[in-house]
């Protein structure tokens, strides 16, 4: 071996170690708080159990909170910030809709008493979402941690980045693609609608005059249609809620997909995963595979939740560890 070759090997090795160091620093890990807050997951679990015992629906609300946080500037707790009309909380998909802020405050104060100034609000939301899935009968996983909290809340971005129940399938898929997720993730994560509720205003477009046809959405099961027409009369304010999964509204299972097979998806954005021409060659085979195999659904759901939790995390010296989840540190 000649000398210059040995030297170049050495530099190559150094460069690799440097690059490895960079990537490791910018990645989330499951044991991020192992020494700085060893009891973290126990503390969060205890608070999530209390919250769900107080109100079962809170499990659903906490899962959705993580989703709506991650899709707007990454999972950085920006949805938790209180502020004006241009903050995420006031954006159309969130206002009078996203819930669980008080529960996150309670979790934060319990965690702060055990390990002050160490754990980000963004990570608390991610752990609470995992616990909510598990406590509703769904799968569990090790949550990647080490996210830091953002200092910007962008309401106008929330309006364009979050999917609407009135969006066609290609729009929903492109909103997921913009976040680094794909069609499989759209279908698996939509399975979160196996628990929780939605307001009439978000599906009443299907009940009387669908897309200007003068008739209800023909893909909606007729018994379910009658029930929903009675629940959501055209004269009402649209704030009444219906369960997303009529079969087992509090249980995290694959019945959401079985509902789609039977025309019992609640939102238009649910049923289009199965009942449109576009779905035939895209989402429908994935829905069918989750109907046939709930183990496959659980495994894919976990993979997609980890992927979603990894959207644009702030690490290193980016962002901050907020003292209160509702305000940035001064
Ligand atoms: C695919 C596009 C999606 C659309 C269009 C959508 C839309 C909606 C809408 C309109 C509601 C009812 C909101 C209200 O009544 O104010 C809702 C509720 C919910 N969403 Fe989604 N969603 C989508 C994906 C997801 C994902 C990816 C998750 C989580 C992984 C999720 C979890 C939930 C949960 C758990 C609820 C019930 C919340 C509660 O009861 O508080 N959704 N969704
Ligand atoms: C963790 O909790 C245990 C009791 O569950 C307690 O004995 C221990 O002191 C706690 N550790 C820290 C670092 O707070
Ligand atoms: C908020 O998002 C909008 C839409 O993507 C963008 O034009 C704007 O620059 C963002 N504002 C801030 C403060 O980041
Ligand atoms: C989506 O991404 C996952 C990996 O994250 C991959 O296994 C899956 O095949 C992809 N699905 C599609 C439809 O591209
Ligand atoms: C349904 O909506 C369309 C377009 O908005 C409207 O022209 C039509 O009159 C409506 N039909 C009924 C029966 O209300
Ligand atoms: C629906 O509820 C929200 C608050 O929960 C309220 O601000 C709004 O006025 C209600 N809508 C109607 C039409 O009453
Ligand atoms: C849910 O579906 C199962 C069959 O898959 C059925 O036996 C059960 O009665 C259904 N429960 C409700 C509340 O619809
Ligand atoms: C999609 O599948 C449905 C039901 O199998 C069928 O009636 C329809 O013609 C299909 N559409 C296309 C474009 O293949
Ligand atoms: C269901 O999916 C799991 C996970 O992918 C797989 O291991 C199993 O073989 C599947 N079961 C059947 C009956 O296909």
Give an overview in words.
- Mean pLDDT is 94; it is low at 19-25.
- The N and C termini lie far apart (59 Å).
- The chain has helices spanning 3-25, 40-54, 58-70, 101-114, 121-135, 155-161, 169-178, 183-190, 222-231, 255-261, 268-275, 277-280, 283-292, 294-309; strands at 197-199, 241-243.
- The protein folds into two domains: 40-161, Peroxidase, domain 1; 169-308, Peroxidase, domain 2 (Orthogonal Bundle), CATH 1.10.420.
- It has a two-stranded antiparallel ribbon with strand order 1-2.
- The protein has 330 residues and is mostly helical.
- The structure holds protoporphyrin IX containing FE and 2-acetamido-2-deoxy-beta-D-glucopyranose (8 copies).
- Residues 152, 154, 156-157 line the site of one 2-acetamido-2-deoxy-beta-D-glucopyranose.
- The site of one 2-acetamido-2-deoxy-beta-D-glucopyranose has 3 residues, from loops.
In short:
With 330 residues, this protein is mostly helical. It has helices at residues 3-25, 40-54, 58-70, 101-114, 121-135, 155-161, 169-178, 183-190, 222-231, 255-261, 268-275, 277-280, 283-292, 294-309; strands at residues 197-199, 241-243. The protein has a two-stranded antiparallel ribbon.
Could you tell me the strand content as a percent range? Answer: under 5%
Bound molecules: protoporphyrin IX containing FE, 2-acetamido-2-deoxy-beta-D-glucopyranose
CATH first level of the largest domain: Mainly Alpha
Terminal residue distance: 59 Å
Spatial shape? globular
Please name the CATH topology of the largest domain: Peroxidase, domain 2
Main-sheet strand order equals: 1-2
Structural class category: mainly alpha
CATH superfamily of the largest domain: Peroxidase, domain 2
- Helix share bin: 40-55%
Q: Compute the CA-based radius of gyration.
A: 22 Å
| Topology pattern, helix = H, strand = E | HHHHHHHHEHEHHHHH
**Tell me about the biggest sheet?**
2 strands, antiparallel
Report the uncertain regions.
19-25
Return the CATH architecture of the largest domain: Orthogonal Bundle
Look at the structure and give the mean pLDDT. Answer: 94
- What's the domain count? 2
């Amino acid at each position: 071996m000649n000398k210059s070759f040995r030297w170049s090997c050495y530099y190559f090795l150094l460069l690799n170690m440097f690059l490895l160091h960079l990537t490791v620093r910018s990645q989330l890990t499951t044991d991020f708080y192992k020494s700085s807050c060893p009891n973290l997951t126990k503390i969060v679990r205890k608070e999530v159990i209390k919250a769900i015992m107080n109100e079962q629906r809170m499990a659903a609300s906490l899962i959705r909170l993580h989703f709506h946080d991650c899709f707007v500037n990454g999972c950085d707790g920006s949805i938790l910030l209180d502020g004006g009309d241009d903050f995420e909380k006031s954006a159309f998909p969130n206002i009078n809709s996203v819930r669980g802020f008080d529960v996150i405050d309670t979790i934060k104060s319990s965690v702060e008493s055990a390990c002050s100034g160490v754990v980000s609000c963004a990570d608390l939301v991610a752990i609470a979402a995992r616990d909510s899935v598990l406590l509703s009968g769904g799968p569990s996983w090790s949550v990647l941690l080490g996210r830091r909290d953002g200092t910007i809340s962008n309401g106008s971005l929330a309006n364009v980045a979050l999917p609407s129940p009135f969006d066609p399938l290609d729009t929903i898929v492109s909103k997921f693609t913009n976040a680094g997720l794909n069609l499989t993730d759209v279908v698996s994560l939509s399975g979160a609608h196996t628990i929780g509720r939605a307001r009439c205003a978000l599906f009443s477009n299907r009940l009387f005059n669908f897309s200007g046809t003068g008739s209800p959405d023909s893909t909606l099961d007729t018994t379910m249609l009658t029930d929903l027409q009675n629940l959501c009369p055209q004269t009402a304010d649209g704030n009444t809620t219906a369960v997303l999964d009529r079969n087992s509204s509090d249980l995290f299972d694959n019945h959401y997909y079985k509902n789609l097979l039977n025309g019992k998806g609640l939102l238009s954005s649910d049923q289009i995963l199965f009942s449109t021409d576009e779905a035939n060659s895209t989402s429908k085979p994935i829905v069918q595979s989750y109907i046939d195999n709930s183990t496959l659904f659980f495994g894919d759901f976990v993979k997609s939740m980890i992927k979603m939790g990894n959207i644009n995390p702030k690490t290193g010296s980016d962002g901050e560890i907020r003292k209160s989840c509702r305000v940035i540190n001064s």
